[in-house]
Design a protein that fits this description.
Length: 438
């Protein structure tokens, strides 16, 4: 396979033209996938696929068994309750208590068609609760599809890269937006896609304090919950607990995903956890678009009902079973995920040994965890140039340009597709790249 590398640059440009990829800097993940697929077939070379953030581990048998049992019981012919089945709501509430050390009533624990639906539903309601506040502020870098959701909804957003605003610097930066009076919602993920930063207690306390001061709803995306492997967050009811904005404000909705944490991406099951205080708050301006002026009921009775009328019975049964096992300590969900950290540590070393450097490298004064993603750059190259070159060596990735990052020299590397038995191959390709780009 190494004999066919590096791939001829003219061929890469030709395939890009055929796929309509004018610039790699703004190419979507799906376009990079198509490009790598085409080149793999042409050259009979297996790419090191780091562009897609998809699970690289098997789903837990607990979930699939529960789903099969549910289907055999006949749930396929019955509409699920839009608020979610009671066992799942109870287990989500327990999970919040046991793994975040916060109280969220089962009423506000609402299953959705993946966390992607959760964010869209919250945008629908939260951004219409006050006619003077119509804009989401993204604390970037972040997941670009959430911005596309706002585009589809015809809603506004602004964003900034947190790279230069960690710790105490975050306060002034946030207030520079908030004092204008138009920000309705914040959104960020922790651990973060793509940079793998984790917001600190200090930063989350600032976000919570300002959410209270300016009445902003915080969307905290927990797609990678427990995957900051610097500490063990997998023991129910036992410290340490991950930092969360929920300790500093009642103006929050937690977006919970089963895709990476439980490798249950295919069944599209997630949840939103709405604080008790926010769930029952009344906003007169909701009457402009919704049949009820309370936040939580507007999510349920209008947003969910008109978009999907709930999420599948069987998927809910699967997530309920997984969470029950996790909550009772029968299943340590963090243990299998630690392989991602092992992969990241090895891959990072191979990149660093061959002249690359990390772009996002610290949480304030702490080294970043090894996990699902990391970010790299190469001296003297933009992200677009670097991606164009790495593709020639059978390595695919995405640029940071598409994530709201100002670090246009960087690429996001996802470790999920690269198993431990391919690490030597990663090393050889990067050595070849390094020898030809000194």
């Amino acid at each position: 396979m190494m004999d066919s590398l590096p791939i001829n640059q003219e061929v890469v440009l030709q395939v890009r033209e055929e796929l309509g990829i004018k610039t790699l800097a703004q190419a979507s993940i799906r376009q990079i996938v198509q490009l790598a697929d085409r080149l793999q077939k042409m050259y009979q070379v297996d790419f090191i696929r780091t562009e897609m953030g998809v699970p690289g581990l098997a789903a837990p048998q607990i979930g699939t068994d529960a789903e099969i049992t549910a289907l055999r019981s006949g749930v396929a012919s019955v509409y699920p309750p839009i608020q979610g089945i009671e066992p799942l709501k109870q287990e989500l509430s327990r999970f919040a208590r046991l793994f975040l050390d916060i109280d969220v009533a089962p009423t506000g624990c609402i299953p959705t068609v993946g966390a992607m639906q959760s964010s869209m539903l919250v945008f629908l309601v939260a951004n219409r609760r006050d006619k003077n506040k119509d804009t989401t502020l993204f604390i970037d870098p972040g997941f670009p599809v959430q911005k596309r959701q706002l585009g589809v909804l015809g809603m506004k957003y602004e964003s900034f890269d947190i790279y230069d605003y960690r710790g105490d610097k975050l306060r002034a930066k946030l207030e520079s937006y908030l004092e204008k009076g138009h920000i309705s919602t914040f959104l960020y993920s922790t651990p973060n896609n793509p940079a793998w930063i984790s917001f600190t207690e200090k930063e989350l306390s600032i976000i919570g304090e300002l959410a209270n001061k300016y009445d902003v709803v915080v969307l905290e995306d927990l797609a990678y919950f427990g995957m900051d492997f610097r500490q063990d967050y997998g023991q129910p009811g036992r410290a340490p607990y991950p930092a969360t904005v929920a300790r500093y404000t009642d103006n929050y909705v937690l977006l919970f995903s089963s895709s990476k944490v439980f490798s249950y991406a295919g069944q599209r099951i997630g949840a939103m956890l709405i604080s008790d205080g926010l769930y029952n708050r009344q906003f007169a301006d909701l009457n402009r678009n919704f049949s009820i002026d309370k936040f939580g009921p507007a999510i349920l009775q209008d947003a969910i009902y008109t978009s999907s009328a709930g999420t599948a019975h069987s998927s809910q049964a699967a997530l309920a079973a997984i969470l029950k096992a996790v909550n009772e300590g029968a299943y340590d969900f963090v243990a299998p995920l630690k392989e991602y950290g092992q992969r990241a540590a090895i891959m990072k070393k191979h990149f660093l040994d061959n002249g690359f450097y990390l772009v996002y490298d610290k949480d304030e004064d702490l080294e970043l965890a090894d996990g699902f993603y990391f970010t790299i750059a190469y001296p003297g190259m933009t992200g677009e140039k670097l991606l164009g070159e790495l593709i020639r060596y059978g390595i695919s990735a995405i640029t940071l340009d598409t994530t709201g990052s100002t670090r246009t020299e960087g690429l996001r590397i996802c470790v999920s597709h690269t198993s431990l038995d391919r690490m030597e191959e990663v090393a050889k390709r990067l050595q070849l790249f390094g020898s030809e780009h000194k």
